[in-house]
């Protein structure tokens, strides 16, 4: 439990004082400028899962250099503009713009006037989301701006929810479950928006083991109710970690793969029981479909014919195999 949200306020009129303010939340940081006139006003809210700083910067070519960040930092330009450089990437962020500084990255932000919001995430919430030890968080960050305007807008909204409705309301902030879940939601949006993945040294071997455990759990429950959280628990990772690993290894989500496994099992049951009086509705219910129409739609998308056509084919010509589904297209939901 967090006893209290820490709040720090700073007002700096020179680069040295601004550097001390930035280092309070960013660790390795340095502020410089081209002229002598500087106004740096900073308010930082510090929680064990995230820190949020609002900084008003005015001056001539003020530069904030972050050297080997120990945390993941998301920059939100509220007003004004700033240029973010991160390795080979450079982008100009205008009002509403979002940029990323990955863990271990060296980056710099330059502006002559902007109101900024900095979200700093330590490894712990990232590790919780990705299903790895916090010591194994080694992020691959292929981009420094969000992949879509929709995700960018959602990130801004969740960030505002955290700062105003959680951090800004003591009664809400005191509820650990609400606080942690809101931070995790913001972390999840950041992971999705910037397409972050983990790349620990043993990631390939570990991913393979997770997939094998998950598939064993899925196949054991083809005719039984099973939830993705239960599969993730059996595989030894978080739900988000399971989703990321399935996308990397199989190119589909766990839920979509479960659907395909059930459809394949249903198809085999139609073949085996075609002459035993089994109906399509029986097979649909057995493999988790209460809606026969939805079952028929998914089946046709996967195998190119309806389950009734498959059943009739086997009954009328049992010697002729069902069509090869090796090139069947899976229609994503």
What report would you give on this structure?
By secondary structure, the chain is an alpha+beta fold. It folds into 3 domains: 6-193, Sandwich (Jelly Rolls), CATH 2.60.120; 202-251, Orthogonal Bundle (Arc Repressor Mutant, subunit A); 257-316, Arc Repressor Mutant, subunit A (Orthogonal Bundle). It is 44% helix and 24% strand. The chain has 12 helices and 10 strands. The chain has helices spanning 15-26, 123-130, 149-166, 170-173, 176-193, 203-220, 228-235, 239-249, 254-272, 280-286, 292-303, 307-316; strands at 6-12, 29-32, 38-46, 51-66, 72-86, 89-93, 98-101, 107-121, 139-140, 197-198. The strands form 2 sheets. Strands 1, 2, 3, 4, 5, 6, 7 and 8 form an 8-stranded antiparallel beta sheet that branches. A hairpin with a 4-residue loop joins strand 3 and strand 4 (51-66). Helix 2 (123-130) packs across helix 5 (176-193) and helix 3 packs antiparallel against helix 5 (176-193). The longest helix is centred in the C-terminal third of the chain and has 19 residues, at 254-272. The radius of gyration is 26 Å and the shape is elongated. The two termini are 39 Å apart.
Main sheet overview: 8 strands, antiparallel
Low-pLDDT residue intervals, each spanning 5 or more residues: 325-333
Question: What order do the helices and strands follow?
Answer: EHEEEEEEEHEHHHEHHHHHHH
CATH architecture of the largest domain: Sandwich
- The CATH topology of the largest domain comes to Jelly Rolls
How many domains make up the coordinates? 3
Shape, please? elongated
Percent of residues in helical segments?
Answer: 40-55%
- Number of separate strands: 10
Q: How much of the sequence is in beta strands?
A: 15-25%
SS-based class: alpha+beta
Rounded average pLDDT: 86
Oligomer: single chain
So what's the CATH class of the largest domain?
A: Mainly Beta
Radius of gyration: 26 Å
Give me the number of helical elements.
Answer: 12
CATH superfamily of the largest domain: Jelly Rolls
Protein name: HTH araC/xylS-type domain-containing protein
Pfam families: HTH_18
Organism: Amnibacterium soli
Keywords: DNA-binding, Transcription, Transcription regulation
């Amino acid at each position: 439990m967090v006893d209290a949200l820490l709040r720090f306020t700073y007002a700096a009129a020179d680069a040295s004082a601004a550097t001390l303010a930035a280092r309070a939340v960013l660790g390795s940081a340095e502020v410089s400028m081209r002229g002598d006139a500087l106004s740096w006003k900073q308010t930082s809210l510090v929680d064990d899962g995230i820190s949020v700083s609002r900084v008003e910067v005015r001056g001539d070519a003020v530069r904030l250099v972050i050297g080997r960040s120990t945390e993941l930092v998301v920059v939100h330009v509220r007003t004004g503009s700033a240029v973010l450089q991160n390795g080979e990437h450079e982008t100009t962020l205008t009002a509403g713009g979002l940029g990323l500084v990955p863990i271990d990255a060296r980056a710099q932000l330059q502006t002559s006037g902007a109101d900024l919001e900095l979200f700093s995430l330590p490894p712990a919430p990232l590790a919780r989301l990705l299903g790895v030890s916090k010591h194994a968080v080694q992020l691959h960050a292929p981009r420094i701006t969000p992949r879509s305007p929709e995700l960018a807008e959602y990130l801004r909204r969740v960030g505002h929810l955290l700062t105003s409705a959680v951090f800004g309301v003591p009664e809400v902030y005191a509820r650990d479950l609400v606080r942690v879940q809101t931070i995790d939601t913001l972390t999840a949006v950041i992971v999705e928006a910037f397409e972050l993945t983990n790349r620990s040294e043993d990631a390939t071997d570990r991913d393979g083991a997770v997939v094998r455990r998950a598939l064993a759990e899925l196949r054991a429950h083809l005719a039984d109710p099973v939830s993705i959280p239960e599969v993730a628990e059996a595989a030894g990772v978080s739900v988000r970690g399971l989703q990321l690993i399935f996308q990397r290894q199989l190119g589909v989500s766990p839920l979509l793969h479960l659907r395909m496994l059930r459809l394949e099992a249903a198809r085999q049951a139609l073949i085996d029981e075609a002459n035993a009086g089994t109906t399509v509705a029986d097979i649909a219910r057995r493999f988790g479909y209460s809606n026969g129409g939805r079952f028929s739609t998914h089946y046709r998308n996967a195998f190119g014919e309806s389950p009734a056509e498959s059943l009739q084919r086997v009954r009328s010509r049992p010697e002729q195999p069902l069509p090869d589904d090796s090139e069947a297209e899976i229609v994503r939901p």
